[in-house]
């Protein structure tokens, strides 16, 4: 069974916005959905003004008819609460509940996401519309999941935010003395004498207080979770059999703690929009998919949105090459998604996202885009077996042996303006590590270090990219795992500050210093564009450090400048494990060497001989077996060694059966863009 209620197929379809169209178009939609093999639509995401045209007055007639139409065609409905886009009446009635920017600008409706998530009136209106939807459709057979809100991510700096921020701070610190200490508020005369002196960090004269900024990020993430919880509580009561999700915008949504959200939804869902074309785009999709699965703690999840072709967002105007959308969808499925859904079904004729691609483009069904959708629907229809949840105690849908540490506190802390270099970005560092693994043919999970220290035992290698902030518990968990035999690679500037953003005195990398067997005495940030040589022909840029050995041995030294002859990369044998430290930002070739050496030392090989360099091989656990996917994203024929029974992907979406097999055991040639799925374990008779 898939992540949604009662569906044991790979979910295929997308956001459907019938409220933008006259009713006769709906019937054409249903006809085309049947042709494409669509089995799932997401309804109502931005329908608030159609559902509740005036405050407290509901119009469900159109929605009743659409849901019934979908149901009659065997299409499951993921029903959204429309709370991401309050209607114009909301602005008029509740101006105090609109969001205010850090510069003090009061926003009004005209786009979407115009509300202050801390405002009581917004919360009440959101609860009301969620209740009305839950009461009306909570037990409707067509509803297979609830899609709460859309891409939580709003942040506001108005009076309602100030009030809730203070409450949150009171709960965190208890008394002002402790807050003043955490915020180091004696600096620049910021000592607070009363709670109501505290404000959200709006625009100010010069550098803001970094701990206040970090706390505000933590608070804003918590507020969004509260908004979700309020609706979840209502829907769980009114619709107890229907699972709940909310779509995460990946991977850049900063005001959001994906781990916390992942623990509360019934299944994780994500929206993924590529940042690059071709093979790099495939690496990015794999990153999004691995993030999603990790935030789902290894369980199956759902790709809720992706672009069918062109994504109409500045900087993301990418055209997908023929076949690319099929390969990308299959990547997500191989990496644990129970479906491939799109934003959106039919292209609107106007509106802010008019040129964003759709499953049915402006040119209509006689188009490459729609033919590819039909082809994708057919292929996904052949992959039903993959949606069986994995059996067994370690029921992870994909089981990588490598993990990358991802900690929102460090993500936020590295956004601070008060750092010795503006070079650092946790997202960029994590992405660089993941990309390197992907090109080596190795899948990875993301982990939060203190989630469950024993969970690290699932991995042989852990990459820790610039985790600036580390708690004592995180450091102890990492150390114990290394001593038990783990291999860790820790990057520069990690472990430098504690949870209050206070520097750990005695040397940078303080939290991890013992594990790494080093002391970082001093950072040596480099001016932009300057690279200094390191032994072995590589170079360092942006950041270097003066590292003192405290038990570790030198792997590579700086070969130039004031640090010439000093350790650049070190290795510390500790207990049964090894901890490597990389004290600089490295050129690409040396970065690759560091990662590939760590993989070799930890005994991790590519998923199959021939995997890597743009050929993706992933094992998905499904039921009691394993389905292996091999996808060639390159423009050349590539050979991978595989073993299993190929799934026939050519049968018709009408269910016409094709025979699986014959069994392969050895090299398989994959033409440019080709893919194959195999049952690794014998198929059930
Ligand atoms: C998503 C969003 C959709 C649509 C899409 C366009 O992030 O959820 O509503 O805006 O982007 O790229």
Describe this structure in words.
- The protein has 17 helices and 26 strands.
- The longest helix has 29 residues, at 210-238.
- Residues 652-656 have low confidence and may be disordered.
- The strands form 5 sheets. A 9-stranded parallel beta sheet has the order 5-4-3-2-1-9-8-7-6, with helices on one face. Strands 11-10-12-13-20-19-18 form a 7-stranded mixed beta sheet, sandwiched between helices. It has a 5-stranded antiparallel beta sheet with strand order 22-23-26-24-25, with helices on one face.
- The protein is 30% helix and 20% strand.
- The chain is of the alpha/beta class.
- A hairpin with a 2-residue loop joins strand 19 and strand 20 (577-582).
- The chain folds into 3 domains: 11-156 and 220-387, Glycosidases (TIM Barrel, Alpha-Beta Barrel), CATH 3.20.20.80; 402-602, Rossmann fold (3-Layer(aba) Sandwich); 615-680, Immunoglobulin-like (Sandwich).
- Bound molecules: beta-D-galactopyranose (GAL).
- Beta-D-galactopyranose (GAL) binds at residues 150-151, 249, 271, 273, 305, 311, 313, 343, 353, 356.
């Amino acid at each position: 069974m898939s992540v949604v209620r009662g569906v044991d197929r790979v979910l295929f379809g997308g956001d459907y916005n019938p409220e933008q169209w006259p009713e006769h178009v709906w019937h054409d939609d249903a006809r085309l959905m049947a042709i494409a093999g669509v089995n799932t639509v997401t309804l109502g995401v931005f329908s608030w003004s159609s559902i509740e045209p005036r405050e407290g007055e509901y119009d469900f007639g159109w929605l009743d008819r659409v849901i019934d139409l979908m149901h009659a065609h065997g299409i499951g409905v993921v029903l959204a609460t429309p709370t991401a886009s309050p209607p114009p009446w909301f602005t008029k009635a509740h101006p105090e509940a609109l969001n205010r920017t850090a510069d003090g600008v009061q926003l009004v409706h005209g786009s979407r996401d115009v509300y202050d998530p801390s405002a009581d009136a917004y919360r009440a209106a959101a609860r009301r519309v969620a209740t009305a939807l839950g009461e009306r459709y909570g037990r409707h057979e067509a509803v297979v999941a609830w899609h709460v809100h859309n891409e939580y991510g709003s942040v506001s700096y108005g009076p309602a935010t100030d009030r809730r921020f203070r409450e949150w701070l009171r709960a965190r610190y208890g008394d002002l003395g402790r807050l003043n200490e955490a915020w180091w508020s004696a600096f620049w005369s910021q000592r607070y004498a009363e709670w109501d002196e505290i404000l959200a960090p709006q625009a100010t004269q010069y550098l803001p207080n970094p701990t206040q900024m970090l706390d505000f990020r933590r608070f804003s993430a918590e507020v969004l979770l509260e908004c979700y919880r309020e609706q979840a509580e209502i829907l769980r009561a009114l619709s107890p059999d229907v699972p709940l999700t909310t779509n995460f915008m990946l991977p850049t949504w900063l005001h959001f703690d994906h781990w916390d959200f992942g623990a509360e939804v019934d299944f994780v869902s994500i929206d993924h929009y590529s940042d690059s074309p071709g093979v790099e785009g495939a690496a990015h999709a794999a990153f999004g998919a691995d993030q999603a699965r990790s935030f789902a703690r290894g369980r199956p999840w759902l790709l809720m949105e992706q672009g069918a072709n062109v994504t109409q967002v500045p900087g993301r105007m990418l055209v997908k090459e023929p076949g690319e959308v099929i390969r990308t969808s299959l990547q997500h499925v191989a990496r644990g998604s129970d479906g491939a859904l799109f934003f959106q079904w039919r292209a609107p004729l106007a509106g802010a996202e008019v040129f964003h691609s759709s499953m049915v483009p402006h040119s209509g069904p006689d188009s490459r885009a729609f033919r590819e959708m039909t082809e994708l629907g057919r292929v996904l229809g052949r992959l039903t077996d993959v949606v069986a949840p994995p059996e067994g105690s370690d029921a992870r849908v994909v089981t990588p042996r490598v993990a990358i540490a991802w900690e929102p506190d460090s993500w936020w802390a590295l956004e601070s303006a008060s750092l010795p270099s503006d070079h650092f970005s946790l997202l960029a560092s994590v992405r660089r590590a993941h990309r390197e693994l992907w090109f080596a043919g190795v899948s990875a999970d993301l982990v939060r270090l203190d989630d469950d220290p024993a969970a690290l035992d699932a991995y042989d290698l852990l990459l820790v990219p610039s985790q600036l902030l580390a708690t004592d518990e995180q450091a102890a968990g990492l150390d114990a795992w290394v001593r038990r035999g783990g291999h860790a690679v820790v990057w520069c500037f990690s472990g430098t500050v504690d949870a209050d953003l206070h520097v750990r005195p005695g040397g940078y990398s303080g939290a991890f210093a013992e594990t790494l067997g080093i002391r970082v005495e001093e950072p040596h940030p480099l001016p932009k564009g300057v690279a200094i040589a390191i032994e072995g022909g590589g170079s360092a840029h942006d950041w270097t450090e003066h590292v003192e050995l405290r038990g570790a041995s030198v792997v590579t030294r700086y070969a130039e400048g004031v640090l010439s002859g000093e350790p650049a990369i070190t290795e510390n044998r500790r207990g049964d494990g090894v901890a490597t430290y990389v004290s600089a930002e490295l050129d690409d070739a040396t970065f690759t060497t560091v990662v590939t050496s760590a993989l070799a030392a930890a005994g991790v090989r590519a998923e199959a001989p021939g995997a890597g360099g743009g050929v993706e091989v992933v094992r998905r656990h499904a039921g009691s077996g394993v389905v292996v996917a091999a996808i060639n994203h390159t423009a050349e024929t590539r050979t991978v060694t595989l073993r299993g029974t190929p799934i026939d992907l050519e049968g018709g979406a009408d269910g016409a059966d094709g025979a699986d097999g014959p069994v392969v055991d050895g090299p398989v040639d994959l033409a440019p863009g080709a893919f194959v799925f195999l049952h690794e374990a014998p198929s059930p008779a």
